Amino acid sequence: MKKAIIEKRNDPRELEKLYRSNKTAFKEAFISVYPQIKESPLAACWNERLNYSPEGFDWATRKDLIFLFIISAVAGFIAKLPAILQIEEDYFYARNIGFIIFPALTAYFIRKNQLPTGKISPLALGIILGLVFINLFPDLPDSDTLLLSSLHLLLFLWVLLGWTFIGGRINQPVKWLDYLKYNGDTIIMTALILATGGLLTALTIGLFATIGIQIETFYFNYIGIFGLCAAPIAGTYLTQTNPQLVGKVSPLIARIFSPLVLLMLLVYLLAMIYSGKDPYNDREFLLVFNGLLIGVMAIIFFSISEIAASTKHKREIWVLLILSLLTLIVNGIALSAILFRISEWGITPNRAAVLGGNVLILIHLLMVTFHLYRVIGRQGKIAQVAKTIGIYMPVYFSWSIIVTFFFPWLFGFG
């Protein structure tokens, strides 16, 4: 490698080929021989390229800090409304959990992307519509449609946040993959912030306990709740302004977890056959099965978002293809179980919602699996897989609208 670098030090195309053939070996060899070829302008450029490191941590400006403090305080205030207004916590949080964080994050990206009023207005209208609808929903504790509306309202708000993240542009399917990557990065950063906050909490409470002052109730009711609300907001700011913080961690997690999830899913399916357990006659097991389906699909999409911008990763793509095929099997079992239960006991809001959701997921997984197969066969590119993921987001948004706002009327709020 050293000899080749010396010989081709003035040939940009050949140096690039050497670099792409083995990046690690090229870097080691180049650093070793650079004193011999440093007179070459091209070698000097390569030296800067290989030794470049991002600038230091990007600290928040005063305006940023004030804005982050305001939206965090508002989120914390919303979370404290049950205590302030004497509202039953189960009643409030079941309906409004999504309005604690999603509007704050939406406000962050409105400011970051400087969205015009014409794009903010329909966004604000959608959030207000969801807020009014879910809080005017009749107080029926046994209502299936209330639970369905509350759950799908989270999906509705999540897509609105994504629309804000990509700058309010409709025809940007690849940008949706950036949004999925943002979700993964923010979850990692938020988990780190919460872990650090948990350690600080334990230390603070412990120190006060040693002097005979019990602050647990006050701490969790005021400081803790505001800290929980601020964590994803701070995580969002850090991932957007300092992407290098998780830039190497997220791809690593994706590459480690994908094979592990594949192994887990395979063992789980075999264990299910061995145990004799099935989702056809066990409602709780069917719910767990669908939760598994959604979780694995999310991991597939997150992993694709991490490798889409990189060079070829054939092993990772093989893992994702096999994982997608297994997830299709899981989806097929869940779908057949739902159809069986509908044929035996009739249609209900829950069964209709799960049936529709599973059909949409099945179609989407088939599209993603097909394009992953084309990538393996060198008939397609990973960018097409990314586009397939993003182009389907409006479908999920439409389904969230149907279940949130129309299912209660279709099923008499039952």
Automatic annotation (TrEMBL):
The UniProt keyword set, sorted, is: Membrane, Transmembrane, Transmembrane helix
Q: What name does this protein carry? A: DUF4153 domain-containing protein
Lipoprotein as UniProt keyword: no
Write the signal peptide boundaries: none
The organism of origin for this protein? Cyclobacterium plantarum
- Going by the entry's taxonomy, the superkingdom of the source organism is recorded as Bacteria
Transmembrane stretches, start-end: 65-85, 91-110, 122-140, 146-166, 187-213, 219-240, 252-273, 285-305, 317-340, 352-373, 385-411
